[in-house]
């Protein structure tokens, strides 16, 4: 489950999949599949929040066992919202107010941070377990023990003499830099996946810098982080338990950093922005610890006074962090994200809620982008998305272990999709769809020119060069509104977008505009009943198959003036409908069929 500390809050019901939303006026259960409000209760009518909209909800959590949602307000009330009766019940109140609420993964314990800088731990029945101060002078039970090796007293000091061995080095936090100006200065609480430990990031009253402390589920301090200059507010413990993610601003870069449970730093990766360009609002791991979502926002407003927001998805492989997807939200403040959460049951489902109460659900999947050719002219290329680069390895010529590659394609914006041309003997060409809504086409130069080098060496793996860039016009402005991109012919692309009605899809055939060759517009389109989750194309026959989220397989007839969709039939004439959707789909030709 997920909690943010400002604006709207959302959480997801694990039993029904509906979205729970708490605002400064009400708490609502919303069905994302049907687009309907299931239940709603006013928080202002019963006096939990003021009617002028100035109230703040600091936490929201679905409690499946109680068939309720628990929310906490900044004035100190802890309220249960019964999802069956839509009734509100105040189960407790803290006079000093609350700054955050976080439930353990097993929903047995809840942590409340108060306006007096204390931590209150309670059971699921809201019985107090302990109350301790956030700021502790002691390091914790996990304090490091040294046996003296390498200490100054045991080292040779040469001309410094014995006096040098007697000098005591004072280690102090006084040199720590205060937190950044935009920090909301509120505590952040995150639990380890097994619920045995939780971490709290808070502003140190002496230095003004953020410090992370780790506690066990009995409320006993385990460890305190080392002084980290530039540490920011975002905090999220990897569910698998190995690392705690946060963000840090360095003098020359902006990074996501990782800490161990003992408070020591252990690895990082650099964000693709300058050090003063964006702020990291939140970090969130998905349930199986394979993807880290980073929510960012520009620090400087544009000419119209609005700012741009981003949600980036990062994965790691061979100790290299890849930026796999970037959702770039335009500067319209109503379309900016106000909250987001990963689905607890489906690890690659991401739910985003915007200021205008629009709920967007992204269903991600792993796929291998490879050239589809079957003859010797195909280089057996595999493309890997890595931020603004596409890493291409031509396996027919060489085998290069990732994160290295045969060559790289450099783009101007983060890459969202890659597709190879689906035409025999031309399958080495690549089209790249970036987050700024452009499609860049890459191909080879003539073999005679590509074989020439200044030093006389012969090139085995020929790089690709940018040949053309298209701008895509779409009636939808949501990030990644176009998906499942296929490059069917030289200047003909197929894309899938959400339909007008819930649980429908629209297939778009994109082609250059007659008087604007660098712009792709919709040439034809067709509506499909159901959500298209994958496509498969066979270049030998031109057959194109669609898979819906309920397991149905459809055939798209695209090589005609008007698009049309029909059921896919097997040899017995029966419609193909899998009991569950396939993770990967592909077409092959058997005996000419």
UniProtKB/TrEMBL annotation:
It holds the Pfam family Beta-prop_ELP1_1st. Transmembrane segments: none annotated. Residues 39-345 form the ELP1 first N-terminal beta-propeller domain. It is found in: Cytoplasm. Pathway: tRNA modification; 5-methoxycarbonylmethyl-2-thiouridine-tRNA biosynthesis. Keywords: Cytoplasm, tRNA processing. InterPro entries: Beta-prop_ELP1_1st, Beta-prop_ELP1_2nd, Elp1, WD40/YVTN_repeat-like_dom_sf. Residues 384-591 form the ELP1 N-terminal second beta-propeller domain. It comes from the Eukaryota. Its main location: cytoplasm. Belongs to the ELP1/IKA1 family. This is Elongator complex protein 1. The lineage of its organism: Eukaryota, Metazoa, Chordata, Craniata, Vertebrata.
